[in-house]
Write a structure and sequence with these properties.
Length: about 450
């Protein structure tokens, strides 16, 4: 080792700089490292540009699909009121896409065949943009006529408010929104062009459809169908089906959705339905109806039968605006129709004196509407229609009956049970242009290839 060190020292003295001088080595090293860094930066920049382009393309395709879906939904909404609807154009609310719609009968040779083909073409960001994204969807649908009392509870101008332990075996509709409180059980759909809100421990066996926001509260609440919101949807409950919303979808810590989530994808608009119109025509009834100018005279006749156990029947028009209260237990042995210009209250049990199914039609044109209070039970073999086009239908305390409730608004107290049945009632007309006349059933939905241009 000593010799080696001495040799390096002698060589260094003989040839200065040959061993110890390393000046100039750093320059090529720096150039080499800089080249590597530059090449890596250029590579990553190319990758970044590619990713941005790919992300922009995928976003454009997604927006185009949303536009085409909105076109299908808009067509189905129009077909609910007009089976002759042939198509149109539209723009998404967020201005992220546009669509064209074409609707044609599947069987052009049969005007009674209500099957339709819907073709919707979506464009993003617009059909006039340079090189727009284009996607096309096709749907084959059936139209089913629905004129009639299709809902169990229907509020034509106000809200449906249900208190604790509401049970409805049928569908609910309200123009101004629906709020279901604790322990509500709806064996059907819940529909409103405004909002739908549920509280604790609610069960909805069908779908929830709202034109605006949907709020599902509490992990003990279950929607066994799907949820469609025109606005945002907040899920803190269990949804067995899918959730589709025109806005955002938030699933809370206690929320669960078994199906798919489709935010920012507007579902079919909820059509604003209206109450049917009723016209009194004595020729619609048999036997010939009775007309009463005095509420007191009618009450005297009815109560005399009720107090002595004689069944009440027939069709009655009360032209007085004074209120009428059915405050004694009574029975029916044939159909009963009561049309009054005053408020009507039902406070006692109604029974069927026979074995046939009967119809009880109660109509109030008063702004005070109809009230059912007390522990009222009406026999299931009596199908009831409560109709108050100008006022509320109000329920207080225990109720149990079969039929339908149609009012300007519906206010349901706790422990209420209604099983839907379509009542037989003449004099009603569903002729308003905004009314829903068809239910749209989708048989086929698929994406079509857009021909190259």
């Amino acid at each position: 080792m000593a010799r080696l060190l001495n040799w390096r020292a002698r060589v260094g003295r003989a040839v200065p700089g040959l061993v110890a001088d390393e000046r100039g080595v750093g320059v090529p090293t720096a150039v080499f490292v800089s080249s590597i860094v530059f090449l890596l930066g250029a590579t990553w920049a190319q990758i970044g540009v590619h990713d941005v382009q790919l992300s922009s393309y995928e976003r454009c395709r997604e927006q185009t699909l949303n536009a085409a879906e909105a076109g299908i939904n808009a067509a189905m909404s129009e077909l609910t009121i007009d089976s002759a609807y042939a198509g149109g154009t539209g723009t998404l609310a967020a201005k992220t896409g546009e669509y064209d719609i074409e609707v044609t009968p599947i069987n052009t040779g049969d005007p009674d065949d209500l099957r339709r083909q819907i073709v919707a073409t979506g464009y993003a960001p617009s059909r006039t943009s340079p090189n727009p994204c284009v996607r096309r969807l096709e749907a084959e649908v059936d139209l089913e006529t629905t004129d009639g009392f299709d809902f169990a509870l229907f509020a034509g101008a106000g809200t449906v408010t249900g208190d604790n332990h509401l049970t409805v075996n049928g569908d609910l509709y309200s123009t101004d929104g629906i709020t279901l409180y604790n322990n509500s059980d709806v064996q059907g759909d819940v529909v409103s062009p405004k909002f739908v809100t549920t509280n604790n421990n609610s069960l909805i066996a069908g779908d929830v459809r709202a034109g605006e926001n949907v709020t599902l509260n509490n992990s003990a609440t279950t929607v066994q169908g799907s949820v469609f919101a025109g606005g945002a949807c907040a899920v803190n409950a269990h949804v067995v089906g899918n959730v589709q919303a025109g806005g955002s979808i938030s699933v809370g810590s206690s929320g669960r959705v078994d199906g798919s989530l489709a935010p920012n994808s507007p579902p079919p608009p909820v059509r604003v339905e209206t109450l049917p119109t009723f016209t009194w025509n004595s020729s619609n009834y048999s036997p010939t109806p009775s007309t009463w100018s005095s509420t007191t005279a009618f009450y005297t006749d009815w109560s005399a039968k009720a107090l002595t156990g004689i069944p009440f029947n027939g069709h009655h028009r009360i032209t007085s605006s004074l209120p009428m209260s059915f405050d004694v237990k009574w029975k029916m042995d044939a159909d009963v129709t009561i049309v009054s210009d005053g408020k009507i209250s039902l406070n006692k049990e109604v029974t069927n004196a026979g074995s046939d199914t009967l119809n009880l039609v109660i109509i109030s044109t008063s702004e005070e509407g109809i009230e059912m209070s007390g522990n009222v039970t009406i026999a299931d073999s009596i199908h009831v229609l409560l109709f108050a086009p100008n006022g509320p239908v109000v329920f207080r305390n225990l109720k149990h009956f079969t039929g339908a409730v149609y009012g300007e608004s519906v206010d349901v107290d706790q422990n209420f049970t209604l099983t839907w049945a379509r009542p037989e009632a003449p004099g009603f007309s569903w002729t308003t242009s905004t009314d829903v006349h068809h239910r749209v059933i989708v048989r086929v939905l698929r994406e079509m290839v857009v021909p190259a241009t």
